[in-house]
Specification:
The structure is a homodimer of 351-residue chains.
Chain A lengths: L5 E5 L6 H15 L4 E6 L1 H8 L3 H5 L1 E5 L10 H7 L4 H10 L5 E4 L3 H12 L9 E7 L4 E5 L9 H18 L6 E5 L10 H12 L5 E6 L11 E3 L2 H26 L3 H21 L7 E4 L4 E4 L6 H16 L2 H15 L12
Parallel strand pairs in A: 1-2, 1-4, 2-3, 4-11, 6-9, 7-8, 7-9
Antiparallel strand pairs in A: 5-6, 5-10, 10-11
Helix pairs in contact in A: 1-2, 1-11, 4-6, 5-6, 7-8, 7-12
Chain lengths: 351, 351
């Protein structure tokens, strides 16, 4: 045993391959010198990359795996072959206590299914949620669930709020994050019954968060709240729509700058600032989504992250281990259960 | 009676007031010289604006109304006072055949409730849907429902697809619009049962559209399909998220240009092209959402539209009248009902 944080890396997951994963681990090890890695994947490919990664070489063990979860695998297929794959073994190492977290850029559905099967959900959590940071005009905001659960009831949403607040305290360093439910209006009578019930529960209990009621989708980009809670269907629609709109505007912008010699010159003069803008919006700078609510820390990187992006995903895993996110969430949930009002229509069927 | 198109205008609706509405009507009358208007609102305020609008003066009648639907009115309040308000009387004129369409920048919920109550839904339509044009990298796309119906079943979604395709044929001038359902993945097994069932129905029948299955939210900005169909909850989340992200990127862009003398100069040189980009994204150039599925054409303008924006909303009403959208939708629905497969689980309860 060691008091150094151990992170398991699925070296084969996603479109990025061993070159990006190992180079990113080198960056992360420099940033957090106590980090140890368990590298799951093809031994020969990993060894070839370690030549350029002395810090990782000195602070890791390789676990050879011949099989890989493909992007096209269904979750059921991935589970069947799970224990022979780099992704499955990385997750299993968290279950077995060999690692404190696992990071994979592989197939999201497969990672979710295997993590849920191997690690199980925490006491008091019915379903894990996928949480990530999105850029705003101010700092970043946490948004969850981003697609793990298509349909959610009020209890699920309350659990997501508790987990999202704990995540924001760790990753954004906030003492009392502002939390809101995503809805189609800010008035109390808007939205589905599930949302109204979740809002009533969150208003009634004292948790380490400031519950701010409902927000609409246009607030996601403004940064007026720190945690935005929604079901996985709406969360995925919002995330993808934001990505698409970002690409639409930057695509039109590139077209605008190409339109004449004058605008090309204008671009050259503004280039530095425009690149800084591009960096702020670059998904690699917000990389590292987390499955919250499991008995263990599982971080999902974008499948096409670059070295900086995957290093950031490792950084997220590092922060969540350091702050003991799993413990924080279970404390908050216990606190919520102890203080939840008995009179609220928590279960409409019993009302 | 006349063969000239008559459009009722709620002169008092929204934040914009008579000055913008009458000036916009003047622009629209110039664009479509056959247009006649019925102007609903405060006679003195309208008369004061008509001084600067000779075309509208010569081609309109004023119907004085003392009451106004407020932005804060609940739909139920609006309905109670409905027939005395400028919005209610404008809608009623469509019901009575005095006008062929009504345009209002007022309270969306109130306009929806009054339109549904007074005009009723068309045969074969269970619920009206709010449809609008959104900018893309190519042309515009139709998106519906944008918030009229929080929850929808498969039949509702199919009806929205039929109505959205008819709308796209009229407003975008397409013979065979590409139609897709908004989902959290493009594979057939993704999403809710309602979505899967709606997709099966749309695949099985031959309608004047090319059904392209599922699309994710990032496709909204790309323009790969012409009509995107979704329930009102997700549609509203997507619309608002797109607006918020647009403002996020343009806000960061403005900041980037202000960052130094060099970037300020760069902005000056690029200004023309950047303004053209701004115009492409300006909601005023996509103004005019429509409640589809009613026995009559009701167009909703942004509450804060400018003259060009409200004139565009009147233009949408004009096009829908000219193309007889109500007839088109009912023909398509009859065609769908005649050819829908009997074997599909259209009603899961009977399966």
């Amino acid at each position: 045993m060691t008091d150094r944080p151990v992170i398991a890396l699925d070296v084969m997951g996603g479109d990025i391959g061993p070159a990006v994963v190992i180079a990113a681990a080198e960056v992360a090890q420099q940033r957090y010198p106590k980090l140890l890695f368990r590298l799951y994947g093809d031994q020969a490919l990993i060894a070839a990359e370690l030549v350029r990664a002395p810090r990782v070489t000195a602070n890791s063990v390789i676990v050879h795996t011949a099989e890989v979860v493909l992007g096209t695998d269904k979750p059921s297929q991935a589970i069947r072959r799970g224990r022979a794959t780099s992704m499955g073994l990385a997750v299993m190492s968290v279950k077995d206590g060999e690692a404190m977290a696992a990071v994979s850029a592989g197939n999201t559905g497969a990672l979710m299914a295997m993590s849920k099967l191997m690690l199980r959900t925490m006491d008091g959590i019915d379903r894990p949620a996928l949480a990530a940071l999105l850029p705003t005009l101010k700092s970043d905001s946490v948004v969850l669930d981003l697609g793990a659960n298509t349909e959610c009831d009020a209890e699920n949403l309350v659990q997501f709020a508790v987990m999202g607040a704990a995540f924001a305290r760790d990753v954004l360093g906030l003492a009392r994050p502002r939390v809101a439910l995503l809805n189609i209006g800010e008035e109390e009578l808007k939205g589905t019954d599930e949302l109204k019930e979740a809002a009533a529960l969150l208003r009634a209990v004292d948790l380490p968060m400031a519950f701010e009621g409902f927000v609409e989708g246009d607030k996601i980009g403004r940064g007026d709240v720190d945690v935005i809670v929604t079901d996985g269907f709406s969360g995925n629609i919002a995330l993808k729509t934001a990505e698409g709109t970002g690409r639409l505007v930057t695509g039109l912008l590139a077209e605008a700058f190409r339109s004449s010699w004058l605008t090309r010159l204008g671009y050259l003069l503004s280039r530095g600032a425009l690149r800084a803008l591009g960096r702020h919006l670059d998904p690699n700078n917000h990389n590292g989504a987390v499955f919250l609510g499991l008995n263990g820390v599982i971080v999902k990187s974008h499948g096409s992250a670059n070295v900086r992006g995957f290093a950031n995903a490792i950084g997220v895993a590092h922060d969540l281990i350091a702050d003991n996110i799993t413990r924080r969430i279970s404390d908050d949930l216990a606190n919520f259960r102890a203080h939840r009002p008995a009179v609220l229509p928590a279960d409409p069927a019993s009302a």
